[in-house]
Specification:
- This protein is α/β, with parallel strands linked by helices.
- The protein has one domain (7-234): PAC-like subunit (Rossmann fold, 3-Layer(aba) Sandwich), CATH 3.40.50.
- Helix content is 36%, strand content 23%.
- The strands form two sheets. Strands 1-3-6-7-2-8-10-9 form an eight-stranded mixed beta sheet, sandwiched between helices. It has a two-stranded antiparallel sheet with strand order 4-5.
- Strand 6 (66-71) and strand 7 (74-79) form a beta hairpin.
- Helix 1 crosses helix 5 and helix 2 runs parallel beside helix 4 (155-166).
- The longest helix is centred in the middle third of the chain and has 17 residues, at 85-101.
């Protein structure tokens, strides 16, 4: 697993956003929207022999599926393909190590929490969690509900564990979402809550207006992501930790 910088990435106290495959593809949809709205420049990529043998074409040019974008002190990591379970651990370690090397002021994981009654929820609630007490205090101060108890499974779980071990400030913003369908509405709410923590000029109107188009375009990625989540034991997120039973 290797990270390549097309040009030297050296912003001061950067905020790093992660958009990786998870419930409802919330992080992928949210980070993709932020990249487009802010006109972020492609500055690097991550590659590995254990990634699927896939290349992405944009305007006739082949691109690595997992790429890095930057504008000012904001950096975004974003993938357009599903990640195999065996790639999650080395990828998570690489991301946290790189964030630490860059002196990240915040490593942000944007994702979803599957809720069975999502169809009845007009405005999905976004929960916050963090690896450090100061960030948890900020979560409470900003009025974001704290994820008090529960499990998290997948890439963001490993990023959180690794961030705690490496003392990297990791913020998780997780929106209620459809468990097995792309959820642009949840992604829009995650962006709204993210703006409380970092000053980004990103509107969400176009995201909500294109919801049906996004759902259709992301169907296959969601299917592959769901298969991989099942292999990772994603259903454990619906359990309560034993010490609180």
């Amino acid at each position: 697993m290797s990270l390549y910088e097309n040009e030297k990435i050296n912003p001061r106290d950067p905020v790093i956003l992660c958009g990786l495959p998870d419930v409802g593809l919330v992080g992928i949809i949210a980070v993709s929207h932020i990249i487009k709205e802010m006109g972020m420049a492609e500055v690097g990529y991550i590659d590995s022999d254990i990634f699927p043998p896939v290349v992405v074409f944009h305007h006739g040019e082949p691109k690595y599926p997992l790429r890095i974008f930057q504008k000012g002190n904001l950096i975004a990591l974003f993938t357009e393909t599903a990640l195999s379970p065996e790639s999650i651990s080395p990828l998570s370690k690489l991301i946290v190590k790189w964030a630490k090397e860059k002196g990240a002021s915040l490593l942000v994981s944007l994702g979803g929490i599957g809720v069975p009654n999502r169809i009845d929820i007009d405005s999905p609630k976004v929960y916050g969690a963090a690896t450090s007490l100061p960030i948890r205090e900020t979560i409470n101060k900003l009025g974001v509900p704290l994820m008090e108890e529960g499990f998290l499974v997948g890439p963001y779980a490993l990023i959180s564990k690794q961030s705690k071990a490496e003392y990297v400030p990791n913020l998780l913003l997780l929106a209620e979402s459809f468990p097995q369908y792309p959820d642009p509405g949840a992604a829009a709410n995650v962006i709204s809550e993210l703006k409380k923590f970092t000053p980004i000029d990103v509107g969400i109107k176009s995201l909500t207006e294109r919801s049906e188009e996004i759902r259709l375009n992301a169907r296959e990625l969601m299917r592959k992501t769901t298969e991989n989540m099942q292999k990772m034991g994603k259903s454990q997120e619906y359990e309560l930790p034993m010490m609180y039973l």
